[in-house]
Write a structure and sequence with these properties.
Layout: H1 2-23, E1 30-36, E2 39-45, E3 48-50, E4 55-59, E5 71-76, E6 84-87, E7 89-91, E8 94-99, E9 107-113, E10 118-119, E11 122-123, E12 131-136, H2 141-167, H3 172-199, H4 212-233, H5 240-257, E13 266-268, H6 270-274, E14 283-285
Parallel strand pairs: 3-12
Antiparallel strand pairs: 1-2, 1-10, 4-8, 5-6, 5-9, 7-8, 9-11, 9-12, 13-14
Helix pairs in contact: 1-2, 2-3, 2-5, 3-4, 4-5
């Protein structure tokens, strides 16, 4: 019964951490509702798009009122560009407008103005920051899926190791080593290759840059390296110090997963691009 409870808690915490991190990150779609008369219409607006096609921004068909279409306004992110306005067009699945493709890590800031009779009249509301969409190159599924799977397993076994340190010391060593293995394969080996495909750089964290995703991965990996050293070298896994180190590693992992995904990620510097720098050499880390 204890084993069943520990695995149940581990799985629930894993999914909670992953879902929280993904849904609070700057690339997760913006969701909301339009109220037209007495009817509520949900919408979903993109904040991430592959460079293979323009980003398709969509709204419910009812957002067009009396022949007047919503208007998409956009400019390149962190530039003094004039706003470009594009009316939505009616398509088979609703209303759509398209943002132009940017180089990898290029961002576009946009907002939508809506016809009279639609509430709200602007998305986002006046005074709120515009929606920012980032472009990235495609990542092969054969690389992305193992990366995601290894990261899932890393946090699962990491939480399980921490719970073992609290309640069932017999499994500390095994789960600690499995957590380190998942973090090494998923975060420190496959992760840089995912970033290379998406943005052209293997590593933009410490000491080369301030990419928060890379730095978070490094911190988690180091925490599990230290925990694994203690677990392997400990004469008894029941010693308070060994158990404390493993618990700390698990807490570090959970704390890191409370930080939204893709914060301070790769960002194209348009000032450098406009001055003649190749886009591939003008990528830094942003907000």
């Amino acid at each position: 019964m204890k084993t069943f409870l520990l695995w149940t808690v581990s799985i629930l915490l894993m999914f909670a951490a992953v879902v929280y991190q993904r849904t609070t990150g700057p690339t997760y779609p913006v969701r909301g509702d339009l109220t037209i008369g007495d009817t509520v219409h949900p919408f979903r607006l993109l904040r991430s798009q592959e460079t293979t096609s323009p980003a398709r921004v969509t709204l419910p068909p009812a957002a067009a009122r009396d022949g007047e279409m919503p208007i998409l306004h956009f400019r390149r992110y962190k530039t003094a560009d004039s706003l470009t306005a594009i009316p939505f067009v009616r398509e088979s699945e609703g209303l759509a407008a398209y943002l132009p493709v940017q180089p990898p890590a290029g961002k576009v800031a946009y907002f939508i103005s809506l016809p009279p009779g639609v509430h709200p009249s602007r998305i986002p509301a006046v005074g709120e920051e515009d929606i920012v969409l980032r472009y990235k190159d495609p990542v092969p599924a054969a690389l992305l899926i193992p990366h995601v799977l290894m990261m899932f397993l890393a946090i699962l076994f990491g939480i399980r190791a921490g719970l073992s340190a609290l309640a069932a010391p017999k499994g500390i060593k095994k789960f600690t080593l499995l957590a380190l293995l998942g973090m090494t394969l998923g975060g420190m080996i496959l992760g840089p290759f995912v970033q290379k495909f998406a943005f052209g750089e293997y590593w933009t964290g410490f000491p080369f840059g301030g990419d928060l995703t890379d730095n978070k991965t490094l911190i988690m990996w180091l925490a599990w390296v230290i925990a694994a050293l203690f677990a392997v070298r400990a004469r008894s896994l029941k010693t308070p110090l060994t158990r404390a180190v493993v618990v700390v590693a698990a807490l570090v992992m959970l704390a890191v997963y409370l930080i939204p995904h893709s914060m301070r990620g790769s960002e194209l510097n348009y000032q450098q691009v406009d001055s003649g720098v190749d886009p591939g050499a003008a990528i830094g880390t942003g907000d």
